[in-house]
Amino acid sequence: ASSPKRTKPYIVLVASCAALGGLIFGYDIAGAGATFQMDGFKEHFGWECAPGADPSCMPASESIIDRDKGLINGLFGTGAAIGAMISPPVAEKYGRRICLAFSTLVFIFGAAFQTWSPEMWVMWFGRIFSGMGIGMLSMCVPVYIAEMSPEHIRGSLSTLWQVAVTSGILIASAANLGLKNWDEGWRLSYGGNISFALLLLLCLAFMPESPRWLAANGNDEQLDEALRKIRFEDEIEDEKKKLQKEVQEELDVGSAPWSEVFSEKNGMRKRVFLGMSFQTFQQLCGINAIMFYAPDILATFFTSDQAIVGTFALNTINFLATFITVATVDKIGRVKLLCSGGLVMFLALLINGILSAVDQTMTVGYIVLVSAGFFIIGFAFSWGPVVWTVCSEMFPYRTRGKAAGLTTTSNWVGTTIIGALFPVASSASLSACFFFFAAMIAIGTTVVYLFQPETAKKTPIQIDEAYRTHKPKLHRKTW
Description:
It contains 23 helices and no strands.
């Protein structure tokens, strides 16, 4: 028998290429959010009058600006929720690679409109399509990576999605430092990631199809060819037999109808609700509000320029902290990371809730910035990447497409709600927003502690067993 712990470098390369989808998403979060503090953007869409403009120029009212911001973020989330629902049938029928290519083209279509945007409605139109492309990618990339990876590094490789998201956030955030001084700079904040999308399309020409999908839909030769690229010679036969056996077992029982996704059988209903709740709480804890609107939040304490620099600092912390997970997700396990990170996030949000209620001085601003840094570290090593890892491995293959589609859609529904409501809610009370986020992460962490069994380093059959036998206890003996 071959030693089970070897990894072909090529598999890491392929997973990294697929993770470019996350880079595109991250760039959008930081790129779009910072434009709200860019003079060129505010003047172009009539939020402000340019210096030396016609004296009759009337800037938009606060309520119209809040509406515009809410729609720029909310329509993106709506598009992404639609994309997450379209993605599974495409990935199941045509394969993971076609799904990745189609998603990327939809994104480029939307991003081109955003970059052009002569008027606000064109921006909104573009946001729906770029959101749809990213929603499809967020569904397809983690599944593709999980199916390509050998079990011993599946956790580490599946965190690449989140590493890529934080890298994209960091790149856009660094670009914003220069783009803010150029009147047309905002266009690159919305469209700069088209370059990463084109790079992903280029990589797809060389990337193999998922062997898992080929075992179910392809022919033997294609499967051999894909396995030769990503496994060592002496592992191919065993891997092929294992995949064909799994597929045969699933064919014997057929493809799962929706009724099975929600059935009691195999604990599916519990698993689906758990997965959906993890993805929903991941968004209701306010991470995207804080990442997307960080420049706006910090502008209550600092100047616009300082707010963009402060955001860059937060995004750097976010990027670095994600690597804690890459190193620990398979060693420490999923549950401990989610619980410890959730605790850090809860305390940081509580502090910010209290501070946002006092006089908004620069000193308070610095403490809010540091506390937000701790919140982001907590998220970046736990709820950010680990939720995607858990949701990509918690379902049996028969139901994985539909069930993972539901969990990802819940993530985007949460994103849409928070993105659309936050500008108005934070104008009313930033402090109440922080307290709401703290309550959400407290509930989410409690759900993990009580109901989520550990899935690290387990085969699909062992994972089924773990969900079947796990009983909620106040004092957890098995992590």
